[in-house]
Amino acid sequence: MCGITGWIEWNEDLTTRADAIEKMTETLELRGPDATGTWLSRHCAFGHRRLSVMDPANGAQPMVRPAKGSDTHDCVLVYNGELYNAPELRKELEAIGYKFRTACDTEVLLLAYVEWGPDCVDKLNGIFAFAVWNTAEEKLFMARDRLGVKPLFYRREEGRLLFGSEPKAILAHPDVPAEVDAEGLAELFVIGPARTPGHGIWRDMSELKPGHCIQFDRNGFKATVYWKLESAEHGDDVAGTALNVRRLLADTVERQLASDVPIGTLLSGGLDSSALTALAVDYYRRTNQGSLPTFSVDYLDNDKHFHAHDFQPNADAPWIMRMTEYLSTDHHSIQFDTPELVQTLENAVLAKDSPGMADIDASLLLFCREIKKDVTVAISGEAADEIFGGYPWFHRDDALKADTFPWSLATGLRAGLLSPELKERLRPQEYVADRYAQAVAEVPSLPGEDETRTRMRRMSYLNITRFMPTLLDRKDRMSMAVGLEVRVPFCDHRLVQYVFNIPWEIKTAGMREKGILRKSLEDVLPDDVLYRKKSPYPKTHNPNYLSAVRSLLLERLDDPSCPLLPLLNVAKIREIAAAADASSHLPWFGQLMSGPQLFAYLLQVDFWLRRYNVRLAL
Fold this sequence. Notes:
Layout: E1 2-9, H1 18-26, E2 35-40, E3 44-50, E4 63-66, E5 74-83, H2 86-96, H3 105-116, E6 126-134, E7 139-144, E8 153-157, E9 160-164, H4 167-171, E10 179-181, H5 182-191, E11 206-207, E12 212-217, E13 220-225, H6 238-256, E14 263-266, H7 271-286, E15 293-299, H8 302-305, H9 317-327, E16 330-336, H10 338-343, H11 345-352, H12 358-371, E17 377-379, H13 384-388, H14 397-400, H15 411-415, H16 420-426, H17 428-442, H18 451-480, E18 485-487, H19 493-500, H20 504-507, H21 515-520, H22 527-530, H23 543-557, H24 570-578, H25 580-583, H26 595-611, E19 615-617
Parallel strand pairs: 10-19, 14-15, 14-17, 15-16, 17-18
Antiparallel strand pairs: 1-3, 1-9, 2-3, 4-5, 5-6, 6-7, 7-12, 8-9, 8-11, 12-13
């Protein structure tokens, strides 16, 4: 994995601007701690930071190869990601006559573009964000993977396009101000920590949407869709469906275990991570690769403060032990204390370039930092709940009939936290309603479906295209901030497309959430783990955390120079802070974010406004 950035400019000679592209590139150092490189021509400048995973001795970027049929012009690539079907593509290209100089997938991707041009994206299985410059045509081509695992942002102006793996690379350009307009604030205060697809938060900055590509040349800018979810009849019965799910998942895990550096899995003892770990252990045994490293996270003394509830029915620790003993993995149990969590809130903002999921982000950043001490690549279970329907809101009538995003049922509460002036400017309820209507309008219909199947198809689509990206972005940004590559097998586009069309009554086979996934794994996991009730990513239950973030926020609000003051209904915030017990049960986003996370989120907003010297263009 890596960090990429670039600058296309028709009205300036970029060979004189090495300083600017180097500055943009260096902002991505944490994504790629192993090497750096830049490439400049008159109208194109590329920068790259490398995290070496495949063929560490070679594969330096930007990578240059001759354009098809030319001895005088080149194609130049910067790339962040992994191609899991690189061996097959390599054989196909060699059969055509291409000669390879390295063993890395970077060269496979570049030669795939040289041979097939923009159509190469249809052949790729992997997670990626890349840009190619064709020197003969003076044309930029950029693409992002189908589910949006790898990020890519851009800013387009007259005669210019800037891009980067993270906003910080674009913000480092000398002509780009750190500005946020009303729409950006609506994303932060009304939609956040989720984000509308394509929205970059920063003014005039966009994110390339998943499954999209861009071409930019002197004739203009063109964005196109090369992949999207499609609705189709599902022809398999329960047994056949379970068999196909198992086949796809096992193939995906084996592909994603390819690495020239140490690799491990994240293990919570839940269905998703246990399944991936068990499949990985089986592959390790068959290929004589020894014991698989596994990693779990928790908080010091969390067991003393844990109280079971619908969203978090039991603690992970006993289940982690169950799986590590069952599979004989080389397990690493990692714990953090409250002060570390509070201190890391700001680093999480720097990793994301915006406020995020508060302590849930901070703990993941700390977790990844510890994992990186032992491995460079990790396998994680993101996306299973979105594609198989595991979240509680898939199974609650109030959420299914809410006519809004099921993780954002507290729009009224959130609106009440804003100052009257900002509330009037943003119109929170209208903003969410518009974004929801936009999302629903995209859902691919299937003629003849009954009301229940239509409703569940819509819920699945919303989760895959609106909620899942939040977790994927979180996982990428927190892991890459410490130079750790995280792979997500449940995001294989073949699996996602297949499961999207499984009827709800088959998805819930056995009258259980994610029933078809459980059935597909019946000979992989012990029954007690296989049918364990879902428990989400752990958060701290220590009251000291609530006390710490609440005190810090009230302290900030006492500062007359606090940039939050004109944005918030300070009296309402103080009222919530005074009700200590109620604030710990104040769900305002998803399953995990209540009172403590609200205070922490506002602390992140305050830090972000100050550290990035954000100018509000209202």
